[in-house]
Amino acid sequence: MVDVSQLNAFRLKFGFHPAVSNITNKIWVLWKSEFAVNVLINSEQFIHVTVTNVSWRSEVCCSFVYAKCSPVERRSLWADLMSILGNLVSKPWIVGGDFNVIAVEDEYLIEAEKWVGPGAFKFQHMWIKHLEFLGVVEQSWKQPLEGYGMFLFAQKLKRLKRALSEWNRNVFGNIFENIARTKEEVRQKELRLEEEDNEETRIQLSHAKANLLKCLANEEIYWKQKDRLVELLKSCEYRTLAIGDGGNDVRMIQQAHIGVGISGREGLQAARAADYSIGKFRFLKRLILVHGRYSYNRTAFLSQYSFYKSLLICFIQIFFSLISGVSGTSLFNSVSLMAYNVFYTSVPVLVNVLDKDLSERTVMQHPQILFYCQAGRLLNPSTFAGWFGRSLFHAIVVFVISIHSYAFEKSEMEELSMVVLSGCIWLQAFVVALETNSFTILQHLAIWGNLVAFYVINWIVSALPSSGMYTIMFRLCRQPSYWITMFLIVVAGMGPVLALKYFRYTYRPSKINILRQAERLGGPILSLGNIEPQSRAFEKEVSPLSISQPKSRSPVYEPLLSDSPNAIRRSFGPGAPFDFFPSQSRLSSSYARNCKDN
User: Which residues span the domain enclosing 549?
Assistant: First the structure.
């Protein structure tokens, strides 16, 4: 049921005659008592009515639109509008409203004709604060014109646009030239006040300073228009990126989550205030698709791997405290714990900044894969839970195998500690190698050279009589049981991980996995529509491009791709255009909610 309480309250407040809303209560149509309105079509995306008046010779058809966010959902809207057009005969028809974002040019085509409107008219916020604004609008609109119906309406809009443009030039002029002129006028009045100090010169100086303040206020409003738009998007829980090339874009760049400045003809103010600086606007595509995506992948791995290696050593400490009667004794000495994070496990992760899962050419050819980053596919609660489970599993493997291997050996606590620490280092070397997508010589040196450096460092420490590990590493390396233990730890720890990866890549490959496989085989890189994984049974019953959003949406983790079990369904059939622009429904709903609150 549609809640019409707000509509009735609004109607009564402003004295309108009976009003009507569409079935979703997103479109309100209100009219005065001298008009007669007949609702012909009431749907989710538009209301089609006929309006009559005693002074009119015939009725006028009006369609008020609030379109859906996706092209698929808008197809029914275009079909309904075309059917209305076929039944109009000679009646005038006015169509207006919010058609939302139309990203595909083909959507404009209606029977081989494009819906083309005039160029954009820039409305300045400072106009509404001027006392003459409403008078200019009313005077322009009430001037008589010859014509009827939609032609008359269009001509009035064009005349209003010309009137506002001319009024803006006469009243405000060039904002920056006005500021320079008023500053010079203030300087001249100050000089005159020094020569003739009387009441008249003081009044003239006060007027000049008041005019300067007005010009500066107009400049402030002019500059704030852009950053207010960014602020609106941020209030709707969107992540924003602002790009500009001049000093008037600094506020907008600083307001956005990510600011990009273009260093060029208008100076370096925008570039200095931004998070990133580029030379030309066309470099933005490479900045986002290539560098932005690589940075997201590397940051996701670095953050989760850091938790993994820390949790691994913590779980082992917990297990040891349980079998030692919670005595508080530490399995590892302080030097080993310090070196574990500083030397043994840091170098392979730092070299991960060179890792690339796909080549730059493939990424530029398939910008759709950016949705993986926007959906948080590599850094979300589920992936963090996976790393948490891996650290727990590896801690159990290392601790159980090490304890059972040396249960019947006459070994010192330091020897058992070194065996457990060695197992952790071996496992983490293979984990980093498994998660690395592209190997270089530097990465091989970092991963395997770090493993060798672990033994070299401990051999040096074991050679010092003053250290608590004297001769321990030498004795362990001469024992076959030590190397057998390392082998069992690696096999038992990495075997299930490799099996899961093989199952996922073979039977449930993502689009990135398929592109990566095509790159390695050296074959042609097909489009995502042609290399889509085999559709499930229930997907065969839907249209080639279908979207159905879950009821509860989280602003942090919103999977968008079709191969995720919790994802917003997006399947792309052959020849279907890819909807590169995300849904705007959250913006509309949040903005409406903010308006209601205010």
Answer: 537-597
